[in-house]
Amino acid sequence: MSDTIFLGGGGEHYARAQGLLLRYANRHGLIAGATGTGKTVTLQILAEGFSQAGVPVFLSDVKGDLAGLALAGSTGFKLHEAFTKRAVTIGFTDYSYAAFPVTFWDLFGEQGHPVRTTVAEMGPLLLARLLDLSEAQEGVLNIAFRLSDDEGLPLLDLKDLRALLVWVGENAPDLSLRYGHISAASIGAIQRQLLVLENQGGTHLFGEPALELSDLMRSTPEGQGRINILAADQLMQSPKLYATFLLWLLSELFEELPEVGDPDKPRLVFFFDEAHLLFDDAPKALIDKVEQVARLIRSKGVGVYFITQNPADVPEDILGQLGNRVQHALRAFTARDKQALRRAAQTYRDNPRFDTEEAIREVGVGEAVTSMLESKGAPGVVERTLIRPPSSQLGPITASERKAVIDSSPILGKYEEIHDRESAFETLKARAENAAKEAAAAEAEEERAKEEEREYRSGRRYSGKDVPRSSSRTSRESSRSKSFGGALADAVVKELKGTTGRRIVRGILGGLFKGR
After folding, report:
1. Measured distance CA(219)–CA(244) in Å, rounded
2. pTM of the model
3. How far apart are the C-alpha atoms of 239 and 234, rounded to whole Å?
4. Over the stretch 168-215, which tens digit does the pLDDT of each residue have?
5. Domain residue spans of the chain
């Protein structure tokens, strides 16, 4: 097996063959360029190369074009002749068409296996980013997560979080003394943002069975790495949901995978398409988190490749960690564009044979300037490169072809059915129902006691003698007090001692879960 992924090469006006060394592939990379310059094809051939080398890949298919990786290219394709000619030009002597092992995923479960996580695994930091919460609202969300742990209330899906927030609001006076101020306005704002998230399809993301990372790191019996493709064309309508999900996945890989040092090849390669969505309006704390993950995850054997239109979309501290680069053409029509082009050119190691800035502006579709890490991890000089043609089908596949791939998947049936086990929603619902029942029983007991009192007074008035009180009255009063004291948390016991209080419990807590 070769230790290099062949990217392309040259002809009369281009450089020697360019390749990505597998032992440096976990030092991350960048694929940049204006729309229509060939970024998707570059991503496709890199995915093919990693798969052939036995490295699993995860990528998102924003436009539906990358699904073609599952099928071999065809001689009947309109670009067949151009592809064959380019293969000869760049010295790609063993070029042939081939299909690759693909696993389709879809947040909505329509174009691939459903992919989910739990609210607890997402965590308050990423969830606050997803909901676009203020600092005060994020503080309340952190309190809810803390209470989830303290009270044994698992947060699996959005209805769990909604129920817990209602419980927090009802017990806010007592909880504020322990955890800090909890305002009804903050809880209301979080609930409204959860509603927006649900309308954007966020409900599909949270639940069980949650994604197991091992299913993203599979290989075929023949030794090829599986290419995991997330259908993102519909997901891109909710860009913040898309970016947060991919960041969560990257964080999970960072947290769960063991250290492997510098392996001969990556354990997994992660492509982050439309990377600017991750950084647009992101708070500094989140960018710092991404920088930390990018810096340290290479030791877990994971390579991260950002795909974006302009290198300026990626923060400078993160850009400096992206050693392997493929830069397609950048357009420079305005002063701002020219400045961005100049900055992009300055990030490459100069080649005395040509001007880097001019080359980035002039390369055509399917061409790029490239710089790959070389011996000892040093960046190579920038080179003009003709990108090799893909072996798999270029472009989308039909619905029936996609279904055939899904039906032959080794994980078919594992994630399709939702498991709704007991969690915060069910626990709080049971508490509310028990509280309502005990409140009703206490109210009935009080009515019986009053009736006995009336009978006692009536009997004494007509006979003139004392009528023995029921011997069970005192014990009933005692048992009523005891059962009542255990009905609810201490914070609401005072509210339940009167008839009005008990009716409030049935009306609010009972109605909370009505119709669920």
Report:
1. 27
2. 0.83
3. 10
4. 999 999 999 889 999 999 999 999 999 999 988 888 999 999 999 999
5. 4-116+212-407, 123-204, 424-512
